[in-house]
Structures are given as C-alpha cells and as structure tokens.
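Hi C.,

You asked whether I'd gotten around to modeling the 264-residue construct. I have! Everything is below, sequence then structure, no commentary in between.
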Amino acid sequence: MAQQHPLAPLSIETIQLHRRFGDFTAVESLDLEVPQGAFFGFLGPNGAGKSTTIKMITGLLQPTSGEIRLLGQDIWKSPEKVKRQIGVVPEKLHLFERLTAAEYLEFVGAMYGLDEEMILQRSNELLALMELDERKERLIADFSHGMKKKLALAAALIHNPRLLFLDEPFEGVDAVSARILRDLLIDLTSRKVTIFLTSHILEIVEKLCDHLAIIHKGRLIAAGPMQSVLNRLASEQPVGTASLEDAFIQIVGQGRGTRQLSWM
C-alpha cells in the first residue's frame, strides 16, 4: 500500500457537487478531498454515481452546481491548462481502432504538444512496458480487450500527467500484465502522481489504495485514509469489519438479502 499523505496539498477538491438529469439526482452534495500523491479508491455499486462524478471532475460533463478544483485550479475556468496535466483511462475506451498502436500514441502525443523525438522515445518505452512493442504496427481493431486497456493507459501516461484517472483499469487484463500495471502505478504515486481509481475488484482497491471514498445513491457515505475509514465502519457494526469487502457489503448491500431462482 502506498504511503499516506495527510498534510499534502489537494490534487482534487469538489465542493457541494450536484448533477441532476431532469428529476433524477445522480450526484448530490459531493465533497471530496484527494491529497497530492494519494492512491485514491472511489467505490460504489452500479448506478451509485461514480461515472457521473468522474465525467464532471475530468471536464466531460457540466455539473448542475458546485465547484471542482484539480491541482488547485477550476477545471471549468481553465480547462485546457488543467487537462494538459491529467490522464484518463475511461471504462469505455473509444480508441481510434483503424490506427496502429504506434500511430495512436503518436497522435495522442502530438495532441499534447510533444515533439516527434519525445513522442518516439516515450512511445517505445510505454509499448515495451505494456508488452505491446511486437504488436505496435497492428491495427488496434485487432487487439484484445486487455491489449486495448494497456494501450489506453500508455496514451494516458505519454504526456507525464500529475493526476491520473483510471476507471476499471484491470478489467480484462491477464494476471502478469496486472502485476506490471500495479507496480507501475505504485511507482507513479511514489513520484507524487495522484491516482484516482474506480474498480469493482475490492481486493485490488484494498491492496493498492491509501485513501478511500464510498458513494451510494449519489451521496458520499464514507471518505478518508483507508485504515481510518475501515476502523470507523468497523466500530459502527455489531461485529468488527475484517476487510474492505465486508465494509462495502454492509454499507451498500443492506436490504438486498439472498435470493434464489424459483426453479432451482
């Protein structure tokens, strides 16, 4: 687990963040604080408001109300300046699949204003790290889902961002590649890069993250350093919570119960 940063400046701050779609409130009164260099896990069940929150924070979706500051700046007032300092790997990748892997990284690097020599150097290093160097001249359309995920991460890193958003980065990635990615991400946080991770694989979140927030039905219900959150949730339960999975299920699984099929 990465080192905690209780006194570090904030990389992400949201203040009373709201997002409504007609009469439906997807995110309500969301106050988040993510310290610089933190490995931050953002959890919630399906439909909790995670994707809506990420879209607002990264400048893809206008909030109904509230404030968002990334690296001390309002992303909606200085979008180009802020976005040059962040990298994003969304759950739905939307890669340009008629390009090769090398062409795609060249395109992304050029969009961030990198010169040709730097793009080539960083592309070669990233493709080798992601074990895609022998496939760099293949069309992305021919890649497996895991290969596309690794290429998307390479593209998110090519401009050396200070803040990295990862939405289900380990989905479809084999065990060996997952270990490589985990080691890379831990190294990034040691160099003060802030990582904002969402994943349904709670074991990965518990192992990697030093800070945590849980959202349920659009509202923040727990946030802070990982161990502090787990300790607080354990103290609120009749039986002490042993793991993040136990705490998560106790919080968001109440009332669901066990169900069976009528014919089995």
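If it helps when you're writing up: The mean pLDDT is 88.

Thanks,
B.
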